[in-house]
TrEMBL record:
It holds the Pfam family Vut_1. GO terms for cellular component: plasma membrane. The keyword Membrane applies. The lineage of its organism: Bacteria, Bacillati, Actinomycetota, Actinomycetes, Micrococcales. This is Probable queuosine precursor transporter. The chain crosses the membrane at residues 21-40, 46-68, 80-102, 122-143, 155-183, 189-215. The keyword Repeat does not apply. It is a multi-pass membrane protein. It comes from Kocuria rosea subsp. polaris. It comes from the Bacteria.
Amino acid sequence: MSSSSSSGPAPAGFARRPRTHFDLVVAAYCVILVLSNVAATKGVAFGPVITDGGFFLFPLAYVLGDVVAEVYGFRSARRAIVTSFAAGLFSSVVFWLVIALPPAEFYDGQAAFEAVLGPVPLIVAGSLLGYLAGQLLNAFVMVRIKARTREKHLWARLIGSTLVGELVDTVVFCTVAAPVIGITTAGDFLNYVVVGYVYKVLVEVLVMPVTYAVIGWLKRREPTYGEAGVAGEALAPLR
């Protein structure tokens, strides 16, 4: 009898999961994007200020974007952005398919279901396209500045990347969504863009202490942070 047969069957195979918090951040990315798109179907009014139910969620995606780009680099940030974009797109397709299914005779919530989970396709498209373009630029600027400043001036990276990323995101989304929601004049469109942009940037600035804390926490707990080889790989797409 050969030694291989006497040793018994091979053990079940599994892949080792790297010791990193990156997967948790990506999961949060996906959840925030999907929930913000659903919450955005509800109009919200604070006196004369009109917004949507996702107003407090979506800026958090840029906070996470800054965290990923700062700690893991552009390549990982791009992966997280594309993954969350795919999750948002997939959720929208699923909602549309479920809405199209014929409701059961006893089900009386079809109209409400459509109102909440079946937003105008152009608005969803604008949201996802703006998110993809804005987040990629946000990560690109963040890592570009870090390549020059190293570990100094984190505040400059956070604000600089937000100014660029949120501008592109807001302009793309508003350009697509404005005619759908009834904005037809140049003045109203400009107001729509400026108010949304200023709000998102202000949120990023206000939560900066939290962003600092999360980034510091991750840097201390990621065993490979700061290694030369890892840094070179993270910056490779920018060279």
